[in-house]
Amino acid sequence: MKVSLVVPADPPGVNAFNQVPIGGLYTATQVRDQGDEVTFFDLRRRTDLDAAYAEVASAELVVTFSTDYDLAQCYPSLTSAAECVRRIKTAAGPVPVVCCGSHATVSAALTRSYTGADGVVLGEFEFAVPALVRQLRSGAALSDVWPLDGTPRVATEAELAALGTPAYDLVSMHGYASEGFVDGEMRRVSSGLVLANRGCPFGCNFCYLFFGRRLRRRPVAATLEELRTLRNEYGIGHFFFLDYTFTLDESWVQSLCDGINAAGLDISWICQTRVDCLSTPKLKLMKEAGCAGVWLGVESPELEQRRYLSKGRIAFEDIEEGVSKIREAGIEVLTFVMVGLPNETESSLRSLNAWLESSQVYYSLSTFQRRLGTPLAKEVRPMAADGWEHFNAPSEFLGESRLRIADLSWFTEFHAANPRRVANIMRRHREPSG
What's the angle, vertex CA 204, arms to CA 276 and CA 241, rounded to 5? Predict the structure, then answer.
């Protein structure tokens, strides 16, 4: 069977860079390994969209990804995927189009109606999509939802261990970027994306846990093989680990770091974790294996803000201690911070700015937004009432606060010009280094 896998084009201004569509490339490997023909279209990297849609239309099945795994937990608007499905169906005629990703897994019915897709695929798509292809190849009709029982597909650790290397050959790997460090300076770098372990046991109430709360480990040997392939065959020396809490399993981290050093890979990498999952010996080991930066989910220096986000157990002193530990190991600190919560005030915004100024951490700033499938989505009227339109509704306010954006020029100007804001750095360095 001939299958086209499609990553929709980005809407203008959404991303300063694109990371490797690792879930899509895993899917390509799995479908190809079972004997089917696969073409891969990352429309974020294409300028000739009309020609691309015509190529997509030659398939017998088209699979679109509303999100890949890098945006699974903080999924964006569904508008781009809906436009992609519309363009494909215009070009492809009767060819079936299915949609997978976080949106479909959260709400199959809403996603199907919003995008106009012929069907939706639930769960981890590198395992769900190949099974759907086999079903269709056998002559079965396409169902509205796959798997048929409506249960999202979740891989076992044994299946993750057997998972083949992503189909890197189907894309231009040097077209993908991330933040990285070159000679001690943060730059846009050509970067590989690694997803070693899935699941996060902490369950912050603003985060959609596409991979669930149970930690599922991938063998260190399989992770090392992906690193070796990208380093030796594609010349990529920078990596981002997508694991939500990289340092959770200390023995796994030690085995990985030992393997990187034993293989002499000479790589630089960044990971993400929590301030309560850090230890000095672990960080020193990571540094020796090439770790250049660690992202922390700080969200806010204000306790009331963290409490609202179910992070009230983390004290400000814990944040400061975590920052110190990382720096003492010779690793750069990067932080996720969030504004626009319902209890946001000018005072809390000024507190955030002051902390960023004094701490001099690198940071990513996001505006609070409720997402279906998260505990906080249950606090307000049923969000399903307007489908996915809540993502696109214009507002004069900052997130869900009662602060008018027009009155916050002092705040927006601070972040628009801040040299430690990662988005500013990535926009300034349009071409990747390293």
Answer: 65
**Cα separation of 220 and 89, whole Å?**
42
Query: Distance between CA 67 and CA 359 in Å, rounded?
Result: 33
What does the alpha-carbon distance between residue 320 and residue 350 come to, in Å, rounded to a whole number? 18
Tokens describing residue 257 = 């770091």
For the chain, helix, strand, coil in percent to 5 are 40, 20, 40
Q: Which two tokens stand for residue 2?
A: 């001939």
Amino acid making up residue 429: H
Q: Judge whether residue 385 has pLDDT over 60.
A: no
- Assigned token pair, 26: 């895993």
Contact between 237 and 259 under an 8 Å Cβ cutoff? The reply is no
Beta bridge partners of 119: 98
pTM higher than 0.90: yes
* Domains of the chain, CATH where assigned: 2-159 (3.40.50.280), 172-428 (3.20.20.70)
Under 8 Å between Cβ of 105 and 67: no
Select from 298, 249, 295 the least CA-distant residue to 272.
295
pLDDT tens for 152-172 read 999 999 999 999 999 999 999
* Rounded-to-integer distance, Cα 256 and Cα 432, Å: 27
Distance CA 84, CA 383 (A): 24
- Joined together, the tokens standing for residue 339 give 């504004």
CB within 8 Å of 84: residues ≥ 6 apart:
6, 8, 9, 43, 64
